[in-house]
Amino acid sequence: MEVQLGQLIEQIKKDGVVAAQTEANAIVDAAKKEAEKIIADAKAQAGKILSDAKAENERMTKSSEDAIRQAGRNLLISFRESVTRELKAITAENVTAVYSSDAFEKLIIDIVEGWANKPDAEDISVILNSVSLQKLEENLLAALKEKMLKGVTLKANDNFDGGFRIAVNNGSAYYDYSTEAVVDMLSNYLSPKVTELLKEA
């Protein structure tokens, strides 16, 4: 009887150890799986954070580069506009100087003479502002008569500051040599040349 009881106790101990070992193994396996999941989640989260940081860095780099490019374009446009304004001011100064000199009278006579030699040009009128007309009328008429340019009339028009206009064929066509028109024409001609020079610089 004692032997059986001893065997029973031994068997119970053995069964308890096996059960405890199985339970322990199950707990260790579950802990390993949980640890692996935590590590995988942490890696995925770290990867996402890294990917997001890289994307944000690329976005900020591109945005900065775009801003620098735009600032460069704005600077070039501003510089070009400044040069164009300066060029127009210099052109206006020179045209005004020519129109204020003795050469102005000769310029009008040469242009009228050129028009008078065209077979289809009739009824030529030279239109000046009233100040220029008063100042030049006597000399201009004398010079035009001297050149045998008959049928040329002088007229006043205060719609422009300086320079003159030529009207032909009873006013059906006008050719504008006013200060403003000549400055615009010369500026438009010179601006592309200046732009090319700036590109080469």
Written description of the protein model:
The chain has 201 residues and is of the alpha+beta class. 75% of the residues lie in helices and 10% in strands. The protein has four helices and four strands, in the order ααβαβββα. Strands 2-1-3-4 form a four-stranded mixed beta sheet. α1 crosses α4 (179-200) and α2 (103-116) crosses α3 (130-146). The longest helix is centred in the N-terminal third of the chain and has 98 residues, at 2-99. The N and C termini lie far apart (117 Å). The mean pLDDT is 79.
Discrete helix count: 4
Beta-strand residue percentage: 5-15%
- Low-pLDDT regions: none
Structural class assignment: alpha+beta
Biggest β-sheet: strands ordered side by side in the sheet: 2-1-3-4
Largest sheet: 4 strands, mixed
Radius of gyration: 48 Å
Residue share in helices? over 70%
Q: What is the terminal-to-terminal distance?
A: 117 Å
Count all strands and give the number: 4
The chain-level mean pLDDT equals 79
Q: What is the overall silhouette?
A: rod-shaped
Secondary-structure element series: HHEHEEEH
Secondary structure topology:
Blueprint: H1 2-99, H2 103-116, E1 125-128, H3 130-146, E2 153-156, E3 163-168, E4 173-178, H4 179-200
Parallel strand pairs: 1-2
Antiparallel strand pairs: 1-3, 3-4
Helix pairs in contact: 1-4, 2-3
